[in-house]
Every structure is written in structure tokens, then in C-alpha cells.
């Protein structure tokens, strides 16, 4: 699996649609200060479902929509194309397109191969692949320093994500919550039963 291309339209400094093709191997992005290099990385994190605006250097959601003194966009859209010929992502397609669109009214739209999905579906698709928004495939300025000074619990989380056990842990937590709910329901039914008989 590798990133094939990135399409950005109306996101941060990119007022018009641009497309970046990545080749297999190493791609370097160079440019003067303030030209938008980090905005490209922000776009990748954002399309993968980043919810923390601090992580993508914005104060609130609409900050990511392009605006300037004489022109503003009504939406921001990012489309990430992934080569999945090795089937690392569990969808039986060679190319997977993940997209996110944010409208000025704050509505977000997520899609996988053109179909509307929930944010949860995008997170689950990338969980334990090393790519998701919480994975360490995007290392921004200052992140290495933050990792080194992390607590033992945070370092354990990083290792669990890399080892691929995070997905199982999340499923276990979900199952435990459901079990707790069922237990409560059984208890309630028990009370009603005692009252009736
Ligand atoms: P450096 O080399 O200094 O780290 P860079 O190439 O990584 O710079 P970025 O930080 O990606 O540059 O881009 C910063 C630019 O993006 C700033 O000029 C900022 O005004 C612009 N920008 C950020 N958000 C928006 C937005 N919503 N609309 C228009 N421009 C924006």
C-alpha cells in the first residue's frame, strides 16, 4: 500500500484544485517558507479524520477553508488516493479513494470510493495499518521531541499501534460496553419480574 496521489481544493492556502502525484519510494516537497508545505501534511491528516484542530495548526474547523482578503471558498475538500494492490486495506479494490469535504456551515462529508461513510469507517479502515491519523506515519515538526518525552502509557499506546493490537483492544472495549448494557437490561427485567410475581 502506498499513497498514490493527493487532491486538495479550498483547503488552507490552496484556493484552487491542485493534484500531487506521489511515486513509490521517497517524495520530497520543497518550497519557500510559508508556501504551504506543512499544509500538505495537514491535508493528509485531515482527510484521515483528524478531529483535533490543534494537530493541524488551526483554531477551529472553518480555519481550514481557504480565505483571503479578496476571495473565500465555501468548502474545503481533500481526496487521498491509495494504491491497494497488496490488499493491506481490507477492501477488495486496487485503488482506494478516501475523501473529506467540509462546508462553511460546519457539515463534514466523508467518502470511501465515492460512497458516503462515517468517520468511524475511515478510522477503522486504517487502524493498525500504520497510516491512520493517530499512527506515526506523519511526523510533524516537534513530534519526535514529544514522543521522547511521553509518559510510559503514551509510549505503550505507540507500540500497540505499531504492533497492530490497537484494533483488537478497541473491539474488546466496545464489546465490554455492550456487555455492561445487556447486564443492566437483565437487572431491570429482574426487578420487573419480582414485582409481577
Ligand atoms: P515553513 O517552511 O515556514 O514551515 P510551509 O511551506 O510549511 O512553511 P505552511 O505552514 O504550510 O508553509 O503554510 C502557511 C501559509 O498557509 C501561511 O501563509 C498561511 O497564511 C496560509 N494559510 C493557512 N490557512 C489558510 C487559509 N484557511 N486560507 C488561506 N491561507 C491559509
From TrEMBL:
Residues 165-192 form a coiled coil. ATP binds at residues 32-39. It is found in: Cytoplasm. It comes from the Bacteria. Contains large globular domains required for ATP hydrolysis at each terminus and a third globular domain forming a flexible hinge near the middle of the molecule. These domains are separated by coiled-coil structures. Belongs to the SMC family. Homodimer. Required for chromosome condensation and partitioning. This is Chromosome partition protein Smc. The lineage of its organism: Bacteria, Fusobacteriati, Fusobacteriota, Fusobacteriia, Fusobacteriales. The chain holds residues 1 to 197 of 1168 of the full protein.
Amino acid at each position: 500500500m502506498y499513497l498514490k496521489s493527493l487532491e486538495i481544493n479550498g483547503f488552507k492556502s490552496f484556493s484552487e484544485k491542485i493534484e500531487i502525484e506521489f511515486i513509490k519510494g521517497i517524495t520530497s516537497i520543497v518550497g519557500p517558507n510559508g508556501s504551504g508545505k506543512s499544509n500538505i501534511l495537514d491535508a493528509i491528516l485531515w482527510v484521515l479524520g483528524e478531529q483535533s484542530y490543534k494537530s493541524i495548526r488551526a483554531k477551529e474547523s472553518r480555519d481550514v477553508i481557504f480565505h483571503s482578503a479578496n476571495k473565500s471558498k465555501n468548502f474545503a475538500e481533500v481526496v487521498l488516493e491509495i494504491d491497494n494492490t497488496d490488499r493491506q486495506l481490507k477492501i477488495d479494490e486496487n485503488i482506494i479513494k478516501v475523501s473529506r469535504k467540509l462546508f462553511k456551515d460546519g457539515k463534514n462529508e466523508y467518502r470511501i470510493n465515492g460512497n458516503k461513510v462515517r468517520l468511524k469507517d475511515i478510522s477503522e479502515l486504517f487502524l493498525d495499518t500504520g497510516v491512520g491519523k493517530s499512527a506515526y506515519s506523519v511526523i510533524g515538526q516537534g513530534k519526535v521531541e514529544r514522543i521522547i518525552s511521553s509518559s510510559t502509557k503514551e509510549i505503550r499506546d505507540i507500540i500497540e499501534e505499531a504492533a497492530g493490537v490497537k484494533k483488537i483492544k478497541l473491539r474488546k472495549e466496545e464489546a465490554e460496553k455492550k456487555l455492561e448494557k445487556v447486564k443492566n437490561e437483565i437487572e431491570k427485567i429482574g426487578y420487573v419480574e419480582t414485582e409481577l410475581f
